[in-house]
Specification:
heterodimer, A: 288 residues, six-stranded mixed sheet, globular, B: 842 residues, alpha+beta, 24 helices, 24 strands, 57% helix, binds adenosine-5'-diphosphate
């Protein structure tokens, strides 16, 4: 690969300019990170899960984060959602600097201002769908906005499933309950970590359509981690991570475009590995 | 939040069943103790006030211990009855002779033998106003020296009927009367469990040596005079040495005396109820530790969705409190049932109580429920805090539960508890008069410390005890051992409950066995006599005439009566009540080795006393000192110490018979020691004694056995009560196993899927259970032996240590089987798991 393919300068191979990590001035920022870093472990076992990530998400945007396994997608999400602490840099949700918050304040942030959808649904088995959806409100001791609740529930197609317990629901339904839970308290931003990972493609597509709809029609910000190019293509924007760094991003993605970038990134990774081996004079390394 | 909590309980209900049961049992025992004792108290109190309802003033001799109703009072002149009758506004008056008799049933056996064999003998009231009972059926008052009236409960139990000859023993001598009537009170058939025999006054005076005397005079005032006014009036005409009190005061005093006895009984039961709750606490702790661990994901999710630490903490606490509330309410009901059953048992053995409803006081409910709630809260605090500390991310990553060994804080707190516990224990035992509360608190802390430190010892013990089991019982045995090793904390907590139960049983049995052996050995050593004449259960009240009779037999070389009332002959030293016995200083070296330390027993004949060494030391007395002794008949006397002896038999104070007769009201012997020339003499004695149905002739060995037997009885009672604790701790094993199996569902499915048989599975759970039970038993026996031996050694004057090895071994064997039984239910459940669904279960 040629050096010009590198995307750190914000340009892609075809020369078109991508949206900068800064949101356009006319749109409100829902969340942003500045030089965010998270190191796990100590000494030799140290892992830089994310390493200097600066991104910003505009209100009403449906963004996807992609990257190979272990590239730091989940870590970035957790740190932005106040589930985990950065070791360097900062995260803010709206005007609030999450990094500076105490654990108690971060708990309040998660409760009132953030929604989270997990890959494995994470519903409480003893509670009905309605009770699961209302957990945020329960913890906050607030009453849900009934109209919004009805709207979210009907959007997710759960109106006649509210009194069922998770075991009585299909995987797709369970994940829609989880999505409803992440939306019903009107959070400023919703994070979803591979929400379709455990779903069959039809249920997955339905959920993604719903998420896109919520983002565009209800002005809801959604940040979704996925490794599925089809899922990512539902988003307005895709950010690519590798080795804990943002390596590329595109807007108005298509499946083909995503696949292409994924492939390029993969190749780059392989080259890098090869170079790495070269340095050590690996006798098996093949020169092109 | 409350709803979520309640739902969570409902969905985990089966996990809480045993824990709920433990709380319920503990609360039930506490409540049962309260209800039973309050009900007895109320019922007996009512019986007493009913019996005294018409009495305005009671006149009697002064007692050494006015608050104790058993302590005898000197009789007073019967002429006082007439004096009182002439006093203004006295409406009625009646003088009574009051004493004890033993009544014989139709087979010639003493009624109530083995328990309390005495019936109250009372002379018939001379005034109808004072007759608070009435005849059941046709009957008439006793009028001649041949006639007797009995209470309805006794008559019904013994199947007597009016006209029957009734045999009874007065100071072991047989008398015979005709039953002329059967009486009962308005509500009850006897006097709150005490049987009553009525004679006419003259007969009573003759039978009980009260010619021209009465024991008690009851006076009724005319309408317009208050009790206090009547007391004042009587005081002005009666001799000053009499006690004159109002009927109300007399009722209250009698009730207080009974309440005091009930309180002793109730405290005794309460200690065991408390121990049950304490042991139950381990189970509560364990259950919640396991449930919280199993719910890590859920609690982590709550935290991720914005539940605060406090909310998670309080949800777990709330959950435990909801459980404890339900269990406590059931426990309250259970307690009432226990009390009713025990009361029924009391009535079945001849007690007749006024028909009072179970006395359920709000304070009893409050205390029982709070005990349940507090012990739960206390036990759950740790697990709840751990649950609240779950990282939110735990919900997102599958992290196995940490089975780490306890951190240093745990160790430190263990040692601090142990130190405090031992300090309290030692202080409670040896500082001042000792304190039961301090001993109990110290014991509880010590056990807590052991439980806290137990996880360190658990793996070693499991390996040690599991080794033979793994070797002998194959795959099941070795898997059982591995499983018991898996979570040392859980194994330790479960075994700790058993350890405590067994440690308590062992401690108590070592102490009681040592006490029994010491008393037995010392008695055996001191007794030089060949035979002992004794009443059943050493409750002999033997007429001095019998000793004289025995002395007349050929071959009887020495007859040595031990003069003593059956409840101990009281005397007063300042404000302390002590007891003494009367002996004949002449024959003593033939029958007793008193281990004389100073002085000469022969001098006793002449108005002195022999004091045991330890008492003399405690009081700071020396040979020749004069000590102030207040006697029942003669009041305060200065008595010289003529001898100091060491042997701990009979009593610390020995008076010569001559002095005893002069200073003490009633003259009965509790035992008669005999020196015989040969076996033929023994046969002659036996022949003579056959006229006295409650007396037996025992060899020294038999007598020692008898004494030891009555001490060993204590062991039986405490073992039964501690056995309840043991059952709760075994429930804990069932509970832990059941919960562990929930947790291992997947793994069990896997093992079954790859070919493990149901039998193997069941056997692995069985051996896990046995290992847990046995490490508890092993640790408990060790600790119990340590505590028991320490306490026996530290006891005043030290005890000869006796270890009830047989009993301990049988307990361990019993526990091994109990461990197997505890595994039955969990093993069945595990064996029933379908391998496929078990694996599929998320
Ligand atoms: N709690 C943790 N402790 C140690 N390393 C972690 C932890 N969480 C994540 N990592 C490491 O950080 C890197 C990024 O992980 P993650 O954010 O989960 O990646 P992704 O979601 O993109 O697969 C990986 O190398 C992972 O092993
Ligand atoms: Mg991930």
């Amino acid at each position: 690969m040629q050096p010009s393919d590198r995307t750190e300068d914000g340009s892609t191979k075809d020369g078109s300019h991508v949206e900068t990590t800064l949101a356009p001035p006319h749109r409100e920022v829902a969340a942003q990170t500045h030089n965010a870093g998270r190191v796990y472990g100590k000494g030799n076992a140290q892992v830089r899960a994310i390493d200097g990530v600066t991104v910003s998400f505009a209100k009403g945007q449906f963004a996807a984060i992609m990257g190979p396994s272990g590239s730091g997608k989940s870590t970035l999400l957790h740190c932005m959602a106040g589930l985990d602490n950065l070791t360097s840099g900062s995260v803010s949700i709206g005007d609030t600097n999450v990094t500076a918050l105490s654990e108690a304040k971060r708990t309040e942030l998660r409760r009132d201002r953030v929604g989270f959808i997990f890959q494995s649904y994470n519903l409480v088995p003893s509670l009905t769908a309605r009770e699961n959806i209302l957990l945020h409100c329960t913890f906050a001791k607030t009453k849900p906005d009934q109209a919004w609740f009805d709207e979210v529930v009907s959007t997710m197609g759960l109106a006649d499933r509210l009194s069922h317990t998770p075991t009585e629901l299909s995987g797709g339904q369970q994940q829609r309950v989880a999505a409803a839970r992440a939306l019903v308290h009107r959070p400023e931003i919703v994070f979803a970590d591979e929400p379709t990972g455990a779903l069959d493609s039809r249920s997955g597509r339905r959920l993604l359509t719903l998420l896109a709809h919520v983002a565009h029609d209800k002005n809801q910000t959604i940040v979704m981690v996925t490794h599925d190019p089809v899922a990512a293509s539902f988003a307005d924007r895709v950010i690519f991570l590798a080795d804990g760094k943002v390596v590329q991003e595109i807007t108005k993605p298509t499946v083909e475009r995503i696949l292409q970038i994924v492939q390029e990134l993969d190749e780059k990774q392989e080259n890098k590995n090869a170079e790495h081996l070269d340095e050590w004079g690996d006798p098996l390394a093949v020169t092109e | 939040m409350l709803r979520i909590t309640l739902k969570s309980i409902r969905s985990h209900l089966s996990r809480f069943i045993f824990t709920g049961l433990a709380i319920m049992l503990g609360v039930g025992f506490v409540m049962g103790t309260f209800v039973l004792t309050d009900t007895l108290d109320t019922a007996i109190g009512k019986a007493i006030s009913d019996a005294n309802q018409n009495v305005d003033v009671v006149v009697q001799g002064k007692s050494l211990d006015p608050d104790d109703t058993l302590t005898p009072r000197p009789p007073i002149s019967a002429g006082l009855v007439d004096t009182i009758r002439t006093v203004d506004s006295v409406a009625a008056v009646s003088g009574y002779v009051v004493d004890f008799v033993k009544i014989l049933d139709k087979d010639g056996e003493v009624v109530g033998a083995g328990g309390w064999p005495f019936a109250s003998a009372i002379s018939w009231p001379s005034s109808p106003e004072l007759q608070v009972f009435s005849f059941r059926g046709a009957g008439k008052a006793p009028e001649t020296s041949e006639e007797i009236v009995l209470d309805a409960a006794l008559v019904e139990n013994e199947d007597f009927s009016v006209g029957d000859r009734i045999e009874l023993l007065i100071d072991e001598e047989r008398h015979s009367f005709t039953l002329t009537g059967v009486i009962g009170f308005t509500e009850t058939d006897n006097m709150a469990g005490t049987s009553l025999a009525f004679f006419d006054l003259a007969t009573s005076q003759k039978l009980f040596d009260r010619e021209g005397q009465v024991d008690r005079i009851e006076v009724v005032a005319s309408e317009n005079l208050s009790q206090d006014e009547l007391v004042d009036r009587l005081r002005s005409v009666l001799p000053a040495e009499l006690e004159i009190i109002t009927g109300e005061d007399e009722t209250e005093r009698t009730q207080d005396a009974i309440s005091g006895q009930i309180a002793i009984f109730s405290n005794f039961l309460a200690v065991f109820a408390g121990i049950s709750l304490f042991v139950g606490a381990f189970m509560i702790h364990n259950t919640f530790a396991i449930v919280v661990a199993q719910r890590n994901r859920e609690l982590g999710l709550f935290r991720a969705l914005g539940a605060s630490r406090r909310q998670v903490l309080s949800s777990v606490l709330l959950e435990s409190l909801a459980l404890a509330s339900i269990a406590s309410i059931l426990g309250i009901g259970f307690g009432v049932v226990i009390a009713a059953l025990l009361q029924a048992a009391f009535e079945a053995i001849g007690g007749s109580l006024p028909d009072v409803a179970p006395d359920i006081r709000p304070s009893s409910v409050l205390i029982s429920v709070s005990a349940g709630l507090l012990i739960t809260l206390f036990s759950v605090l740790g697990p709840a805090r751990k649950g609240a500390g779950v990282a939110p991310l735990q919900a997102l990553r599958e992290e196995p539960e940490a089975t780490d060994m306890p951190p240093w804080r745990r160790t430190l707190s263990g040692f601090v508890f142990a130190f405090l516990g031992v300090t309290l224990l030692v202080a409670g035992l040896f500082v001042g008069d000792g304190s039961m509360e301090a001993v109990l608190a110290g014991g509880a802390l010590l056990f807590l410390a052991l439980a806290v430190l137990a996880p360190y010892a658990a793996p070693t013990l499991v390996r040690f005890i599991g080794a033979p089991i793994a070797r002998i019982f194959g795959i099941g045995g070795s898997m059982g051992r591995t499983n018991a090793l898996r979570n040392p904390r859980r194994t330790a907590a479960t075994a700790s409950a058993i350890m405590i139960a067994i440690a308590l049983i062992t401690t108590v049995s070592v102490i009681i066995q040592s006490l029994s052996k010491t008393v037995g050995d010392e008695t055996e050593q001191a007794l030089l006599a060949d035979r002992v004449v004794s009443g059943e259960g050493q409750l002999g009240s033997i007429s001095p005439d019998i000793a004289h009779e025995l002395a007349g037999l050929p071959g009887v070389e020495t007859v040595f009566p031990i003069r003593q009332e059956f409840y101990g002959t009281p005397w007063r030293l300042d404000d302390k009540l002590k007891t003494l016995v009367g002996i004949d200083p002449q024959g003593i070296d033939q029958v007793l080795d008193l281990d004389l330390k100073a002085g000469n027993l022969a001098d006793l004949a002449d108005g002195g006393i022999a004091v045991r060494e330890d008492e003399a030391e405690d009081e700071g007395w020396f040979l020749g000192d004069e000590i102030p002794m207040e006697f029942s008949a003669t009041g305060l006397q200065q008595v010289r110490i003529d001898a100091i002896f060491g042997a701990r038999v009979l009593s610390p104070y020995l008076l010569s018979l001559v002095d005893y007769e002069r200073n003490i009201i009633s003259q009965t012997d509790s035992l008669i020691l005999l020196k015989l020339s040969d076996e033929a003499a023994a046969n002659k004695v036996t022949d003579l004694l056959s006229a006295y149905p409650d007396l037996g002739l025992l060899t020294v060995d038999e007598f020692v056995e008898d004494i030891r037997g009555s001490i060993d009885q204590l062991l039986g009672i405490t073992s039964v009560l501690l056995g309840l604790t043991l059952i709760i701790s075994l429930l804990g094993v069932v509970n832990t196993l059941a919960l562990s199996i929930f947790e291992r569902t997947r793994e069990i499915g896997l093992l079954r899927a790859v070919g493990m048989s149901r039998r193997q599975l069941r056997s692995s759970i069985r051996w896990e259970s046995v290992i847990i039970t046995l490490i508890g038993a092993f640790a408990g026996v060790l600790i119990g032996l340590g505590l028991g031996i320490a306490a026996s050694t530290a006891a005043e004057d030290g005890l000869t240590i006796a270890v009830p090895t047989g009993m301990i071994i049988s307990f361990v064997i019993l526990l091994t089987f109990s461990g197997m039984i505890a595994a039955l239910l969990p093993a069945r459940r595990a064996a029933r798991l379908n391998p496929l669904t078990a694996i599929a279960e998320e």
